[in-house]
Amino acid sequence: MPGKLKVKIVAGRHLPVMDRASDLTDAFVEVKFGNTTFKTDVYPKSLNPQWNSEWFKFEVDDEDLQDEPLQITVLDHDTYSANDAIGKVYIDIDPLLYSEAATVISGWFPIYDTIHGIRGEINVVVKVDLFNDLNRFRQSSCGVKFFCTTSIPKCYRAVIIHGFVEELVVNEDPEYQWIDRIRTPRASNEARQRLISLMSGELQRKIGLKVLEMRGNAVVGYLQCFDLEGESGLVVRAIGTACTLDKLSSPAAFLPACNSPSKEMKEIPFNEDPNPNTHSSGPSTPLKNQTYSFSPSKSYSRQSSSSDTDLSLTPKTAPYPQGPRIYLCPSSPSLSCGSLHLKKSCLLLSESSLPPHHSSLVSPVLRKSVSFSEELFLAASGMGSGSAGKEGGPFKALLRQQTQSALEQREFPFFTLTAFPPGFLVHVGGVVSARSVKLLDRIHNPDEPETRDAWWAEIRQEIKSHAKALGCHAVVGYSESTSICEEVCILSASGTAAVLNPRFLQDGTVEGCLEQRLEENLPAGCGFCHIPYDELNMPFPAHLTYCYNCRKQKVPDVLFTTIDLPTDATVIGKGCLIQARLCRLKKKAQAEANATAISNLLPFMEYEVHTQLMNKLKLKGMNALFGLRIQITVGENMLMGLASATGVYLAALPTPGGIQIAGKTPNDGSYEQHISHMQKKINDTIAKNKELYEINPPEISEEIIGSPIPEPRQRSRLLRSQSESSDEVTELDLSHGKKDAFVLEIDDTDAMEDVHSLLTDVPPPSGFYSCNTEIMPGINNWTSEIQMFTSVRVIRLSSLNLTNQALNKNFNDLCENLLKSLYFKLRSMIPCCLCHVNFTVSLPEDELIQVTVTAVAITFDKNQALQTTKAHVEKSLQRASTDNEELLQFPLELCSDSLPSHPFPPAKAVTVEKTSPMGEGNFRNRSAAPCANSTVGVVKMTPLSFIPGAKITKYLGIINMFFIRETTSLREEGGVSGFLHAFIAEVFAMVRAHVAALGGNAVVSYIMKQCVFMENPNKNQAQCLINVSGDAVVFARESELEVVSTQQPAANCQPACTGGEVTT
Amino acid sequence: MTSELDIFVGNTTLIDEDVYRLWLDGYSVGDAVALRVRSGILEQTGATAAVLQSDTMDHYRTFHMLERLLHAPPKLLHQLIYQIPPSRQALLIERYYAFDEAFVREVLGKKLSKGTKKDLDDISTKTGITLKSCRRQFDNFKRVFKVVEEMRGSLVDNIQQHFLLSDRLARDYAAIVFFANNRFETGKKKLQYLSFGDFAFCAELMIQNWTLGAVGEAPTDPDSQVDDMDMDLDKEFLQDLKELKVLVADKDLLDLHKSLVCTALRGKLGVFSEMEANFKNLSRGLVNVATKLTHNKDVRDLFVDLVEKFVEPCRSDHWPLSDVRLFLNQYSASVHSLDGFRHQALWDRYMGTLRGCLLRLYHD
Questions:
Q1: CB-based contact B83 A796, cutoff 8 Å
Q2: Rounded CA separation A164/B108 (Å)
Q3: Is the pLDDT of residue A23 over 50?
Q4: CA angle A753–A756–A757, rounded 5-degree value
Q5: Is A936–B79 a contact, with Cβ atoms under 8 angstroms apart?
Q6: Contact status, residue A491 vs residue A459, Cβ threshold 8 Å
Q7: pTM for this model (two decimals)
């Protein structure tokens, strides 16, 4: 009996009228935990009953405490017939199980009914007395803290980051059991809600056990998902990063609003570098940056525009001999010959008909692997991670060994974190992703979820090998997702291959001196960009240059990652949200045929999505993507791809080349004219974007006029050819020559469409910025006004004979219009930034496309001088001068061009934000309204891990809630929009109520993981399932804490917001 | 491509004041979009008509969902579903319960029943206020009426407490409720020149002095709840008013009263001769109004009578307002000098209010 749960039912209010005759209700409450039920007395004839019950005590195992939710049911007593249920409240008591979190749950909870929605509120007090149990074989994991936040929570310090934990549990979906035919929709919904609540409790407990095994005490970046597999069952799975966290006794003044690169930047004299020579040869492994695999620069330089990529989608050859496989695309000749210079290798189109492997598909489980990674060329050509070790300096090798030893103990060296303690991330390789198409079959034995486990294990293995092929020993920013349609399921995983600092991975394995040297070795602000692989062994023609920041090491020309922008990264200008959107029609098919069709489409989609991303990135004049998330959604007759990322200009990477359009029929005069017109438009757009996002890298500011395209490139090429001493110089140069301008070939209407669609993306109205990362690079003066929102749109495609183009256009318009609507709705917050913009696409029916967006709008103060930026400028100046001396060996031409321009024009830094068009925050005073007589405390919600201008003082536990809402009177509830609008508002309300009951005043890292909406207008019915999660926290305004912050005037300059936090 | 579903839900419920006004004014989404386009919002923001349509729909849906709560404003404060800053809550409530002068003049004093509700069509056509808006305003009147009808204590306080209205608006509602309860006729042609403000002023005076709640207490002492009803006129008082009859029935008394008034006002009144000539008529009018108030029918016609018997005769003789004031003051005060008259307190209670009302009613 290691725990005693105590519950008291205090009162109810705003109850619905259950007795038409008296217009009143005779309410009583059932309190259920596990198999024990208590009842309160009936409080007759009142809509505001005062039960004031005794303490109901449940004596239970802590295992049950973790698994079971507390169920509170409010009923209307009826003498003659069955008692009518008014509604229920599920309370997850997990937050009470660890000492640092909440000690009591007490407050008003909305009474929720799956048919009627919220019907009044009930006041409940819950406490837990936990007895310490030292049983070594215990099945519970009480005390392990869970955080949805994908970084180290603000009031903790990471002692050790242990690594990946995962678990999944399966069950039959109650909605698909035979009994569902005879029970009411309400009973069925409640069975489902209860089951999922139980399953997530169990899952969390099991994950907790794994953490304890690893000797950790917390899970950070905990992501739990449901797969509604329909007939075949219900899967609840979770991943996270096990850590050992220490509570900070006196938390360092953290700067939520200021993730500026200048912070803590260490000035390291570069000549102290112990191993100057190793730099040119780069770190040790021959890895392959995933970015390159998407880098169509090379392909475009060759003429055929369609899908001529030597680097697209290579299936893996050996690693999984078990089970039938289909090779999704023909392997390139280069693979077999092992050539590293794939100049003109394969054209996908030339072999686009698949080899007829289908016959081999006898197994019920269709296993397909789409490894979208060129690095496999590498792996295939026999360049293991070890081969290059010698070339790295001895220090690097040491670091490498240690990190490896730390990581190799792990089955999967994955981290769900997207932001890291300083120094944790050494190098970033690039995005690694894997997808696999599966046929669902009934889960026969829920206790042995082996198939699902095996599926994920395969995918993870694949990710691991991709990372390894890139020479990286870890994957960060890792996430998993599924898309299910009928019996076909696409499993996806993606992350960012990276080299990590072993210091955090194991306790005390690294000696102090090493640590120090390591730190010195990392040039601040650009270290993570440096290629972790050896350029001599590059299997592909990449375009490396010396880092524009430190001039010491090589960097790629573009960098794609799934993580947040590292805090110490040096960024020029601001970032922006970049999306690639794509639809592909597919024939309706059954089972295996369907899976095959999907598998065939996937690689093309991935390729096109990446091409689009790359084009749009260039169009923005930027050179890196952060927070990349590619979602492939499967529907009955189409596939949808949506990639979102935040583009930035990393100072360390070279200036991106422009986009050049080339026509196929050069003799046609009018065509030619059209092309040149388009070219002009593109050039104008790039120039405009550079201005808009304040991208004024040193070079550009030197040459004010001139086309933004090829010139800077030539210099960088020069730089390289001067410095490189390898044999490949000429070859590399060749490719560079072509690459300078990124060529888009227009040879048919399709391509034309593509170019048009590039230009149709409208930038946000001035005063608005958007990104899908935590914070917006270049903005660091956030004010405290935040508005989290969810927006859902469903469109019905008009015609049945849709073409891919029409579909693309529809989808594109849908997303663009949605964004436009958001900008319009939030216009009163200008100047503001939409952060953590999270798009989710689903295809609920044949002709329906659903897009769900959750984001937070944060205002910022445009008048605050960007002091951090200034500081940063000074640093860069210093750095530049340091570099000067070192670079003397380079041709004068280079120096004169790039160096004097290094300093930012200081005037620019001050006048950056002159954008807002409509009134200078006319509505700002809203937040200054007096908090008069409201009895409901404000609870803020945000998908970010912090609250601007405030400090999180306590984490109260994880919020993980699942709701079903159903209606049989859709029209009466305002149609689908009315129904869903009300439901989402109710979900928000229930989240807020739970947080408030825990004693919190905000939810951070909030995420709506699922929003499954189904309708049947003919029957006047609709159903919706929503799953949300986040971390309940207590925050305090910084001014309240009397933090006299000199670094951050922005946070303190808003006294109006501190008193009355009335907006959220 | 058609939008099947299009929603935006903020953690803080977004309220657009302009759209709220359009919604309250009863415009359809289409009309509201057209009006917003005309306001030049598209040019200001660079938005498209489709965006505006979606935005308007969304706000309308929000308002529609909030409407249920607005029917019982304290619920809006305590509910958990919509997180709305208090200042915004106050704005929502205040605007929701605001009404149009033109509309309130049409229904003031009418029974707030289904029958009247049926006439809303005509009122809508007549006033140019949309039927929807008329319904909302009518329902507001009726709802407030129903809630405070049976309550004790100050009418204004009750309304304020149960509907969280501003003081100003609560007073207006008190007048509306008072008029509806006593069914004062306000729609006659001769009363058309009077504004809602005029009636509300009178209502406040009458509530303060002529109702049960006014008996024996200073108006500043709301705690002593001795059958404190603000809605109904004090029946006993009305009964007592019959005693005033003597002022006009007794010829000597009437003459004495007249001579007292005339003596006092001689030389001070521009319209002295007209006053002198009309004194008996005017006095009869005012006293007869008092004595008739025991009949419900005559209570209803109070304002008609006052205008007919006093305002119109004075106006036709072109009395300036200052003269009316002088006359009424003297007229009320002189009664104290009538030795044969015993009902001084009753007279003051009656005439004090009536004087205030008449002065307010006396304009063009």
A1: no
A2: 73
A3: yes
A4: 85
A5: yes
A6: yes
A7: 0.80
